[in-house]
Each structure stands twice: as structure tokens, then as C-alpha cells.
């Protein structure tokens, strides 16, 4: 994790100091699909649930470091809910509809490609960073959060309406590794057996946004 943090800082410096090429601002809006998660200790201690679909929004800044290659620093957020059934070692299973906020702070590399004279620019990219999960449990009135490693991939096309403004269309997959856990859901003192295992979340989305190219 220490090496990853050092790499993240180094790439941020590169993104903000690179003198080559253009700078772009991306405004994102994506429809994110449902995803299931679960963890089983034994028949009497488990949880299983599903993050619901919703609207994900965010912003990114890209810096061209060589022809057609961009470094992007971005922030994305999804507010949703997660109906979950669980058993913490008691006789009867329980259920709750948790309020969940998924925040991503990501740094990635995007490669663009286009035909001469075309207004359509294809792109693909990979990103890594951190995912911050905030959970409110309406059953026991507890809140908690966790910060985990996150990664993602995306691809699509930008249609340039003018030389400075474009419309982005894209498909995207984001994942927070071991992001959803029993302890996080039930809250401190909320589970008699104290489940502490975690389950990875995968979020597939379709959408896009607006692209603004800065400078001359």
C-alpha cells in the first residue's frame, strides 16, 4: 500500500506539471447497474445484499503527456441503498435497507485515437485509486465508513461539437476491493457475533458527459 501511495503522488505531480499538450475538464454522468455482495461464515453467521442502481456523477481533469495519451485525476460519487439480509449468530435472520454512498478518487491513463478530419475520438483507459464507502444503518441508527483500494476500466468515444466542447459516451467498470463488510454494516456493538469479513463490489455503468478543452 505504501508503494501505491508513492506512485499515486508521483503520477499526480506528472499530471499537474507536464508541459506537453492540452488540458481537458470532464463532467461525468453515468447510470450504474445493480451489484450483489455476500459473505458466509457458517449457516448462522452471514450477510447477503445488493447495491441498487442509481445515478453516478463526477468530474475529472486530464493532461496530455504525449500525443493522444492523457493522465486523468477524477472524482466520482454514487448515492444508493443496499437491501441486505444477515444473521449475526442469533436465532432469527435480520434485514435492513442501508443507505450507501460510494466515492471514488481515481488516477488513470487514457489513450485516444481518431481519424484525420473526424469529429469522433475513440478512447480507452485504466484507473486506480481509493474507494470510500459511507454506510448509514437505519435499524440501529449507526454510521460508519471504510477506505479501500479501487480500480476501473472504461472505453467509448467523444463527439466534438466544436474544437473546445465535446460529448462523451462511455461504458465503465469500477471495483472497490473488499469494500462491504459485516462490521461496517452493523456498526460497532450492533452485531453480537461481530462479522468482519468483506465482499468486493463491482459497478458497471453506461453514460458519459461533457468535455471541455482548455487553452488555445
In short:
The protein has 216 residues and is mainly β.
Structure notes:
With 216 residues, this protein is mainly β. It has a single domain (2-214), classed as Porin. The protein has two helices and ten strands. The chain has helices at residues 2-17, 182-186, and strands at 23-32, 35-42, 45-51, 54-66, 69-88, 94-113, 120-137, 142-160, 165-181, 198-214. An eight-stranded antiparallel beta barrel has the order 1-4-5-6-7-8-9-10. A hairpin with a 4-residue loop joins strand 8 and strand 9 (165-181). The radius of gyration is 20 Å and the shape is elongated. Residues 188-193 have low confidence and may be disordered.
Task: From the structure above, extract its key features.
216 residues, mainly beta, Porin, 8-stranded antiparallel beta barrel, 10 strands, elongated
Task: Kindly provide the name of the CATH class.
Answer: Mainly Beta
Low-confidence parts, pLDDT < 50 over ≥5 residues? Answer: 188-193
Number of helices: 2
Described by strand count, sense and barrel closure, the largest sheet is: 8 strands, antiparallel, barrel
Read across the widest sheet, the strand sequence of neighbours is: 1-4-5-6-7-8-9-10
Assign an overall shape: elongated
* Beta strands, count: 10
CATH topology category name: Porin
Mean pLDDT: 83
Amino acid at each position: 500500500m505504501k508503494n501505491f501511495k508513492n506512485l499515486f503522488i508521483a503520477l499526480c505531480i506528472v499530471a499537474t506539471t507536464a508541459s506537453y499538450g492540452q488540458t481537458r475538464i470532464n463532467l461525468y454522468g453515468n447510470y450504474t447497474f445493480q451489484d450483489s455482495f455476500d459473505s458466509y461464515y457458517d449457516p448462522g453467521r452471514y450477510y447477503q445484499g445488493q447495491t441498487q442502481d442509481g445515478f453516478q456523477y463526477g468530474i475529472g481533469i486530464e493532461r496530455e503527456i504525449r500525443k493522444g495519451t492523457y493522465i486523468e485525476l477524477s472524482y466520482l460519487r454514487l448515492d444508493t441503498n443496499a437491501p441486505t439480509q444477515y444473521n449475526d449468530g442469533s436465532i432469527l435472520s435480520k434485514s435492513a435497507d442501508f443507505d450507501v454512498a460510494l466515492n471514488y478518487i481515481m488516477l488513470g491513463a487514457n489513450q485516444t485515437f481518431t481519424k484525420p478530419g473526424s469529429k469522433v475520438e475513440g478512447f480507452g483507459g485504466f484507473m486506480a485509486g481509493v474507494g470510500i464507502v459511507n454506510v448509514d444503518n437505519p435499524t440501529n441508527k449507526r454510521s460508519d465508513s471504510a477506505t479501500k483500494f479501487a480500480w476501473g476500466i472504461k472505453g467509448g468515444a467523444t463527439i466534438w461539437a466544436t474544437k473546445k466542447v465535446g460529448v462523451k459516451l462511455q461504458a465503465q467498470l469500477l471495483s472497490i476491493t473488499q469494500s462491504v463488510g459485516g462490521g461496517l454494516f452493523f456498526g460497532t456493538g450492533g452485531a453480537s457475533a461481530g462479522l468482519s469479513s468483506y465482499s468486493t463490489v463491482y459497478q458497471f455503468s453506461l453514460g458519459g458527459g461533457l468535455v471541455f478543452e482548455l487553452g488555445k
